[in-house]
Amino acid sequence: MKHTSKQLLGRRLGAGALAAALAFGIAGFGGKAQATDLQFFFPVAVGGKAAETIEGLTKEYLAANPDVKIDPVYAGSYQDTITKTLTAVRGGQPPQLSVILAVDMFTLLEEDAIAAFEDLVETEEEKAWLTSFYPAFMENSRTGGKTYGIPFQRSTPVLYWNKTAFEEAGLDPETPPATWDEMVAFGKKLTKRDKDGNVTQWGLRIPSSGFPYWLFQGLTTENGAILANDAGNQTNFDDPKVVEALQFLVDLSKKYEVMAPGIIEWGTTPKAFFEGETAMMWTTTGNLTNVRNNAPFPFGVAMLPKKERRGAPTGGGNFYIFKDSTEEQKQASLDFIKWITAPEQAAKWTIATGYVAPRPDAWETPAMKAYVKDFPPALVARDQLQHAVAELSTYQNQRITQILNDALEAAITGRSEPGPALKEAQEKADAILKDYH
Fold first, then answer.
1. How far apart are CA 320 and CA 108, in angstroms?
2. Which residues share a beta bridge with 312?
3. Within 13 Å and on the Cβ side, how many CA atoms surround 235?
């Protein structure tokens, strides 16, 4: 690989950054800038081996590229990471690169914070690299004919099921529900009650906290609805198909009684699955390694059940390169991103974390072939990509998704019916996005 040295000392963000630097063995630069220094914001939010693996991969890169220094800042959750990034950008001290949610692309563009990769790549090989990722992941990575994010920590929601619970309920343990109707029918058989009528095991758990709009988008996609346009300036929250999807989500608890009423926590859902509180759950493929390591029973992984069609939103984080960097920094950042998303490194990342390797050739590596032969469920999220759509992403994205989340909460808790809740959400979104038409 070709590298150039740069002379800008990497910035630090207090004790957290220093601790991260020490962990990587790269602290103690002193006042001398001897190499190309990159500050790298990384979200450590989802459980598993994310931090350990990113540390190992970065050490491997640094060992092969002594003229580059990387100062990693473990920024917390995705929300923490975008907040810290925007604060740094507005303060004139952005990082050089970061992994941030793919849906935050429009937010970063509005701040004029990120560079288009077409403006950085030069060789035909680099141009080909830009086209090497799964198209479904690129839907949240491009706009206006330019690429602003490179898929890395990407995922889709999938359905996990407890095979032992299926067997006990008289269901085929190898056959998950393929449709909404089957999910309800299976859920009724899987829901257990004690002699007093108290539920001891729910049939299904779809979290409605943390990222409620994301899992809800699984339902809207399956019902044939798209929540926002590609330009990020129009939502379709009051589409009748969206209303129907929200009514179904509410009905899972109130009508069919296969899911606990009220708000269901995102973070505790895997634990509830492990402990037999639910026989099926929807959650990210990013939990795949966690479930594999901790489920005390045989389990299966399946695509989300269909209504009109199969489908799920993509999710997770992209690499971004920030404009307020020297040309040397931008090229060094590009080189690091090219290296860490290459097939061998992408395979290591997927095997360690459960995230979906973002390019087809990663699945052809010997390591990945051995992994999926030993653990076929790893293929489910990859195969679901052919049915996937872009995760909800707009300008003023955090405000817009919060509006939808509030509407979902109102309907789930019974404060509003789905139709009026989504009508109000659409009106609020229209008021915010009218300036972006």
1. 9
2. 388
3. 31
Query: 238 is written with which tokens?
Result: 């009051």
What one-character DSSP code corresponds to residue 202? B
In contact, 142 and 150? CB cutoff 8 Å: no
Half-sphere exposure of 437 (CA within 13 A, CB side): 9
pLDDT in tens, 290-348: 999 999 999 999 999 999 999 999 999 999 999 999 999 999 999 999 999 999 999 99
Instruction: Measure the CA–CA gap between 429 and 348, rounded to whole angstroms.
Output: 40
362: closest CA among 105, 103, 154?
154
Pairing relationship of beta strands 36-42 and 68-74 according to DSSP bridges = parallel
All structural domains of the chain? 14-154+315-378 (3.40.190.10), 157-312+389-436 (3.40.190.10)
Scored b (16 or more CB within 10 A) or e, 242-276 reads bbbbbbbbbebbeebbbbbeeebebeebbebbbeb
Q: What is the pLDDT of residues 101-124, one digit of tens each?
A: 999 999 999 999 999 999 999 999
In this structure, are residues 275 and 130 in contact, taking their beta carbons and an 8 Å threshold?
A: no
Tallying the residues shown for the chain, one arrives at: 437
Rounded CA separation 10/19 (Å): 15
Chain centroid to Cα 295, Å, comes to: 22
Question: Is the pTM value of this prediction over 0.70?
Answer: yes
CA dihedral 392, 394, 400, 402 (to 10 degrees): 50
Question: Cα separation of 48 and 316, whole Å?
Answer: 15
By the 10 Å C-beta count (0-12 exposed, 13-18 middle, 19+ buried), 430 is classed as middle
SS3 113: coil
The residues facing 99 across adjacent strands are 319
Q: Look up tokens 């505790």; give the residue.
A: 268
Q: How many CB atoms lie within 10 A of CB 367?
A: 14
For residues 305 and 204, what is the distance between their CA atoms, to the nearest angstrom?
Answer: 12
Rounded CA-CA distance 191/414 in Å is: 22
DSSP-derived 3-state class of residue 143: strand
Specify the pairing of strand 150-155 against strand 315-321: antiparallel
